[in-house]
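ok here's the first one, seq then struct tokens
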Amino acid sequence: IVETCYRKGLVRVLTATSTLAAGVNLPARRVIFRQPRIGRDFIDGTRYRQMAGRAGRTGIDTKGESILVCRPEEVKRITGIVRSDCPPLQSCLSEDKNGMTHAIMEVVAGGIVQTASDIHRYVRCTLLNSTKSFDDVVKSAQDSLRWLCHKRFVEWNNDTKIYSTTPLGRASFGSSLNPEESLVVLDDLSRAREGFVLASDLHLVYLVTPINVEVEPDWELYYERFMQLSSLEQSVGNRVGVTEPFLMHMAHGAAMPIRGRPKKNTSGGSGANTLINDQSLRVSKRFYVALMISRLAQEIPVTDVCESFKVARGTIQALQENAGRFASMVSAFCQRLGWQDLEGLVAKFQNRVSFGVRAEIAELTTIPFVKGSRARALYNSGLRTPVTIAEASIPEIAKALFENSWSGQDDSGLRRMQFGIAKKIKNGARRIVLEEAEAARVAAFSAFKSLGVEVPQFTTPLLPASEDSPPRDVMVFPGAGHAKCHESVLGAHVGDERNICSDYVPQRASTEIVGEDMHPVSTIHIKESQGIANSVNIASMQEASPLSTLPSRNVADKGPVNAHNFPGGFDGFLDQWSSVDEFSFDLHFVKRSSKLSLTIFEILGLAVCWENSPVYYCNFPKDLTPTGSNDSVELWEGFRKRWSRIVGIMQQKSVKKTTWNLKNQIQALKSPCVSCQRLARLHLDPKTLNNIEVLDSTYVLLPPISVYNGLDICLVAWILWPDEESKTVPNLEKLVKRRLPSEAAAAANRDGRWRNQMHKAAHNGCCRRAVQTRALGSVLLKLLVSQNLSDLIETVEGPLVNVLADMELWGIGADMDACLRARHIIITRLKELDKEAYKLAGKSFSLNANADIADILFTHLKLPVPKGCEKGKLHPSTDKQCLDHLRDLHPIVSVIKEHRTLAKLLNGTLGSICSRAKLCIQSQRYIIHGNWLQTSTATGRLSMEEPNLQSVEHMVDFTTRKNDKDFTSMSMVDHHEINAREFFVPTQENWLLVTADYSQIELRFMAHFSKDPVLIELLSKPDVDVFTMIASRWSGKEESLVSSKDRDNTKRFIYGILYGMGANSLAEQLECSPAEAAQKIQSFKRFFPGVSSWLQQAVASCRQKGYIETLMGRRRFLSKITAGNSREKAQAQRQAVNSICQGSAADIIKVAMLKVHSVITNGSNTVDSMDGLMQNFSQIRGRCHLLLQVHDELVLEVDPSMVADAVNLLQISMETAASLLVPLRAKVKVGKTWGSLQPFRPEP
């Protein structure tokens, strides 16, 4: 259209981007360039002439001019480009362009070249023959033919002396794939036929993803997304050649690892390694694109995929379009090879890739004007095939497509537009149906004719003459009355007065109220398991009721129900909800940031369900507002009363409440807010109504809710399978698929899915989660009881969620000014180290790249590679252990170590403070709010992220030069000591930090479990240095003669024994020979015979049971201790001993946290109210906050007047957390910052 208008003179000026301008072939009188750049690149002569050449086209115009706008300093460069000669043409058949092979393949397949003389005739017609000698061109063509014959694309017939194509060659030619691509596709498809993963779409998506993609992955993000995949999807990656080690290397910026499948008949060498690396890189990039396309095929919005993979929207759409085209090429390839099995799969998948839809709606996308979103809307409304759409009325199609904008204005322009689109879709569906019918008729008649049967022909064709012929539908508008509905499968007449299209779909009608006669499809009964297993197969314990005895319509068919539709209204729903003994819930809320840097939790609704009930959705702004009154005071009082009833229900201690992600919901319910805009009907006025607190002039703050007896199903799964669940990010969907039978998982998804999915999309997630939580709870809680693990979660892990929620909300203060000063000093020192390293090495290199460091140390400086540092890598290791071996051989080693230490501090702790700290307007202090992870370790330890404050560095000291020109004068040097913990301060002005750290906690557990009398005696003595005493007893020296080095070596040795280290590892730790280390191990076992015996018993018990148990009954399953190889067995033995002590230490620090938290808060959300502690320390409440837990250490902030009480509370809580054979000791320190703590000394 544009070209026609332009040629006719209707359009006189065209404005286009450089990309479009280079491709549009329209002559012009004048061409204007607004700048001499295309993107960031300066224009070259070829592209300039291509675009400027349309001006004054010969034979069309008499003259033309080209104008280029540029800066004065660019004139000289532009002049050179304009006056430069055209670059010589080069043939694409040259060897470096790989074109000859493709060309020969095409001419042989097309029948142009069949004999040797044909090759001579063909190459004489090529541009390559004009630029190279004829013999060289013929040789290149013959080499290509030999390669094609060798790869089975072409074959030579010795009898006829003719070249012909093989099925592979015909498949390559017919699919438009070049030979190199054809080999890759053939290899992928061949392996897929041997082991195709049909349980996931990812394998099929990979096969239709173009082989060579131009997308450069963010490797760190790629690795993160790969690790988030399910085990099934990761197995797809492994099957096609994507490995976790390769992605890890790329994510860490390391050089490419030499990994790949072993190949036959290949010699070692850099060429083979490069080939393997290139192949791994190509496969990994292709799989990365496949991950994006697979998400689109699951109907995840393009914007979400762009955000998840940090890719531009245009890139995603281009990849999707290319994948659709490539799918058709792969389908044609399979067809020519005669692989009908794969051809059918790929052909059906093409629409899914092109339109980004799931399998169930792919058929609908074949209808004109129907793409992903419209196909989903039609499907959800029950119009699931072209046939049903062709039979449906236009109003029904329009209502399905435009549910949200459907109104009662019959003559509106919007309605006419909607009917017009619906009409086009209906006509398109009718045409598809009629074409299929016509094809079936022709096939049937052909079959009859082949049998000799005469069949009369139709006088008129089945297909209509025009797509726009008026349909024979009757449009029914509101007020026209309702027709009788047909009988449903239950034999009942069900009326539906909710929409104008109910007349056309009587059997899809439904009600909003659940009747008494409706029952769940099946009931799952769990038999108590006998014995212990590392993994429980839930599916084997399911007993489902026979479907034949159940009605065909039940609760599961209904999906969620609005709470206000309950019999008796919303108050009737609250009455029923308050009477149940156990329920599952999920809060629908949005976390927002206010203008005053406050975190606001806007609550929108709540999904609730209990045994044999549908899931009810409470829309807070709507359902809590009473009806029947316009008085704002009465409406607000009614709102408050209903909210108070919900508060009472959620705070019932006798009622068990299960949910998912309880911690975040607790935080939202501590300060719940509702948008004033959503409460517009109440006409709220804080001046006239009492007890209304408005935040940020936008949100009404409601009374808080404390969730008593709440249980997070995520914790239950983690307690049952600690190693499995700690390796992945908690995901409810994956847990349902992994731990429930497929029937139960499908039923839970149905129960939580709204009938009108598009309309209810805003809160469908919480309804689904509530039902899935109920389904998981009915199974996992019984397993928890059968494994005797219920006490652990009820007394420790469950109540701890409240503690972690408060710690996250409160945060910890940060001294931003001091942090920025330290950051500036470190950056200065890093620049100095760069200069020193370059001077010492004699050449420039990157101190941040391990490959560069290895090259400098071992290739350029010729330093010897330490033993054990040369295996299994592209370059020798440059880790801390390796550098320690080299520290005396060259001064550059100390520079590298210092650079690493400071770079880690700069990018880690200081970077986290600068990026995560937020200014609190109220206190005018910067505060960091981290995220506590309760299920990320198999031993029970807590961890932290965003940022991780459990690994903050201690003191780092270094020097910087005042004058870079003076390298000798020591007087020009500044000494710096940076302690990153100095930057963490209380959140309140003038408050102090108080910390308490367990002394030798794991050693004390070793003494308790081993019952070794010598160790118990040593640890029972108060106020002594335990490791000095052990070193003295062990070596026979007086305590005063034990050096600090002897003490430190003893400490390292004991913890090495505890962690299961062997003689070699201990030798490295103690800097002695393996023989000496082995001798020390035997001496230790003789001196502490109880410990030696316990170590053996712990391993033997784990072998027998398959798991270890901590002090409080926590279990860790170690199946590899009996079923693994020698290395895995040795690792499991070390884990068995370590997990007992480390897990027990994690248990008691959590108990101490609960005790402290119960005192400094109201304490009523814990199982044991600890009345004695609360009464003795009631004065400290509100004047002390728990900030951090660093493994065996607790960090609190305290009002200075309450320091002595806080110290007593900490010591009592920590030292009485468990009863052991040896006393627990807690060392307490106090200071203004975390890095300036001093031992607490009570005032006399």
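and now the second one, same deal
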Amino acid sequence: MKRIAGILSVILSLIFFVAFNACAAENLWFPHVACVDGWETEICILNTDASQTLNGVLKAYSNSGTAVSGEKIISLSPHARRQISVSDEFYDAGEIGYMVLDISSGSGVGYTKFYIEGLYRVAVPAVSEINSGDIYVPHIASDQEWWTGISLLNTTSAAKTFTFEFSNGTTKTETLSANEHRAFVVKSMFGGTTPQGVESAVIRNAAGVIGLELFGSSGESGNRYLSGILLKDELAAKLYYPHIASNNEWWTGIVTYNPSASACNLVITSYREDGIALGNQTRYLGGHEKYIGSAKDLGLPDETAWFSVSASSPVSGFELFGTNTGHQLAGYTGVNISGKSGVFAKREMIWDGWTGIAFVNIEESSANVTLTAYDDDGNAVDTEAITLNPHEKKVKVAEDLFSGNISAATCIGYVADREVVGFQLNGSEDGMLLDGLPGMMKIKNDDAAFTTGNQDFVLEEALSYAPLFGNSAGDFQGSNLPSRVDYSSYMPSVRNQGNTGSCTSWATGYYYKTYQEVIEEGWDKNRYAFSPMYLWAMQCKNFERPASFIASHEILKNRGCARWATVPYEDYYDDRSQYRNFYIPDSVHQEASAYRSGDRNPLTGLNQTKNALADGPVILGINYYDHSHLRNNVTEEQNYLRYDPGNYDGGHAILCVGYDDAKFGEGALLFINSWGDDWAIGGYSWIKYSDFNNIVIVAMTISDTPNQQGDDDNVQTRPDPPASVSASDAEGAYVDITWSKTGTALSYKIYRAEIGEPATYEAVGVSASTRYRDNTAEPGTEYYYSVVSLNDIGESEHYATDTSGKSYVDAGSARGQALTQPVLAWDRNDDSEIRSYFTVSNVDPSAVVMEVFVSKTNKGPWTSFGWIDPGDFYITWGEDSEYVGLKPFMSVRVANEYAYSYSEPAQVGKTIVTQVPVAQIQTLTAAADEGKIHLSWTTDGGSADFFEIWRYLASAGEENGNQWILVNGNIPADWTGGFDSGVLPGKSYYYAIRAVYQGTQSEYRMLETPVKIGTGQANLYLSDITYNYDGIVNPAEFDIEVYNDGDTDIGDYTIKIWAYDWDDQYSYSIAEFRASEVDWYGTLLPLPAGYHHTLSFTYEIPTAYADGHFYSWGIEIDPNNEIEEIYEEDNFLWSDKGWWLYGNTRKRNIMSASEKLNPSENSAALRPVSESENPNTKIGNTKLFNESEVTADRKRSRKENNFGPIRFKKPTFCIRY
């Protein structure tokens, strides 16, 4: 059923409390839904997380982007699964063009499946990443035997114009309005006939657009093939085709598409099932060309079980499997489908069909794969471990992969220690239906990050990034540190980030990246400044929590950064959707890729930060500070942040550009801010040394990488050697070497030779800074040290003779001995704090600092957590740490100013788990006052990051399309009340509230009785109409449910019955009567305020309507507005089932519209429902797909819809054309 749209638009106009800025929610998109013309759509959502509940709201939209069919709250436990038949769970499913799962916490994957029972079936993954560039259409088959359909969705809030560039050179421009969805067959773009050579396409300027393509066999072909893939902006230099099926029953189809204008070479490598390589083939693929054919046509060796394609430039492609009978076809993409974990989203029940699963190990080492079968609730049904040799393939039906019984399982997850490719095929028992899906992987950040800027983050999130925070740091600092460092002369002009919480992109991109390139290239710092807009837009496009150091670093490392001149900054007042949908051309991405960054290095404590500052700026995350005194008339004595433990700012990112040991009499760090040059003094301020541990939450550096050399680059010569080198005579078992910076050098190589033994001249290390400690020096031996500069062109001159006559050569020696080896041991885990405790013994008495390392194996690679005092310590892992669920290895290195020593690795003895003490709601009260609903609540004192308030219209149940609505999902944790001004007077509402803490939700607390704003008026509300549409006889039986949700009683009212003819598209008023006429026992009227009743009656369908046409019922109450009501728009409903009727003679009676509008006989008799009447006509059971609206002349014009309704038209791609 569909209520009049006006009331929904009012109900959904929500203003609750004060808007509170939070991270943009993640969405899972189902970009095409078809529930018309015999087509059905199934969607599935899976929670891939092992510990966090997935919560969200599933929303349905029409093709125009208007919300339809209500919403559904989704809450899935870890590993749980929800499969939804759209027609069964959403009213007016035929109006739905696409659906979106708005995820408030957790993460998930999913798929969409389209089918006509017994004829066609196809499945494609749901979309979790919005396309940010050109979209590739790798295959178009549009001729006498095949059709190709394309479905596109504009996810942005602005109109989108894009261009199809087809493989034959033809171009077509299309425009989608904001949030519009459109589906069409390719031949419709060419007037019904597809030109020769249209075999693939690139959709240009398509950032923000998602979609899919389906290809199927035509009716003329005699086959019933149907398959499809997502349309994405991704290419890959290596594609995987993990299964070959070529025999009397099956064929395998291969597509590899080169979207570039330049040719590329393909290297095809075949493997046997046991992983043995069978050799390579080379093929040439011209620009915009596509290889298409069967695996058999490739001429692969007879024993080929799978193969890979390596391309000299990125390509796209997919694989198809079909039966020679023409009944079954399934496929999936070959682009970016490898990973170490994933899920096979649907296991077919054995009474319905079968599920085949294949794994391929694509690495050179053996892979251990753990399979877990889960039921819909996320319970593990069985677990199995398998081992795959290098390049080996295993393929079995799902049940045969497990030694136990998995009959209760609905999906299968896998975790591997090597990169694997997995896929599944699902077939029906009758051999008629088939679909395929790759193993679906949730793209997740490897690291947790705290958010900064105008964002809400908690300390625990910072600890997951800097897990040693809270441990004390030693007093040791490296030798030869200057007393003052200042890099402000290398900084670009101070600018203002405005009203957007983009400070991480300013600190890491605009300031830090600009500094690195100014040093590397010798560029003008303002002319060649780098763009925070590029970085922030990419962070918003790719991360659920974009305002984080991790997000900034991941973009800098993997995508690079464009220049300000190319992408100037725009302040969209923190509207994340505008940044997400900000169009970035491929040429800009290409520019950015030339300026990438390397790895990040977290720092612990003031001394580590100062050591790093000796080599360059340091990125800081700060909180708990007061800067109110830095806004106007700031003096030099006032220019520092004041520690304020009560000022929770939400976090901010800055760039530290120096220090001064004498500043303010105690020393301070100098930083540049992104709040404009009228803040503080010219946009710069200080943090005192004494406030460092209180204000600074995280410190880190990011290494630079050599830039790609272009034809127009200025640096075309080798760098000069350093002007001077100094090698110390250290008391410890090492030598410290320092040297002067060389402007065009990217890094430095350190060489060493024993004095008097020039033949021993050899490289001992590399440094990106101007300092190096040689820990391999033999105590008592004197060395000459030479430093060589490096850049992309080459190395500076060497000096390898036994002399110190060059300025870049100096002598030094190590005198002390190594420290005694410390002993590290794991003590215990504190699950409530997500913390591990360690003891350290046998520490050399001279050691003053200790570095802590972690690794997933006892042989590394090792990651440093930073320096602390020697002795016992703890690690706070954090909810999102990559080590949660593992037992990692730890190691420490103790050091003094002269020497160091490592411990043996020690493993954490218990798996790291999380346990979050989320607050529980104890009371919730609500009261109406001055046109608003005032709410208040109390908690048990537990932790909360924020609260969520939900609302439910009490005067209708969920079965009538009503849903719980999230009113506000980001209520500050310190609030205990507020008001909802988005409610309708006269309507009764329930409310519910829950707390959320680090992604974990409390139980809901719901009002026991509904609350409403009184009006003093009556209000009729037609809630539901039903009739027994299947197997009934004339007269038809009706039940209508009517509410009085006003404040005064209603004595009687008028009821009108409408019939809508889908053949002539007219609506007819066929009966009008009073409610009292069907109040057979006089017990239902008057209808008191706050009550509802159900009227039951039969209706004799007039013979004028026994014409075989397809009709829908409509019921209208109080059609003449005799009752003064609060709302008039809630008095009409169309039934959700259609009917048709033939006369007693079974001959169709043809009557004109005028005859039906003015029937000559009065056959609209009303009677109580009776079971004694003899059947003579029947009403059919057919879905109603569209609503119509009453007009003054009683005519109804059917709304246009790309998908129908057309009852008798043969379906093709679910599209009317």
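notes on #2: The chain has a mean pLDDT of 79. Residues 921-1006 form a domain with the Immunoglobulin-like fold (CATH 2.60.40.10).
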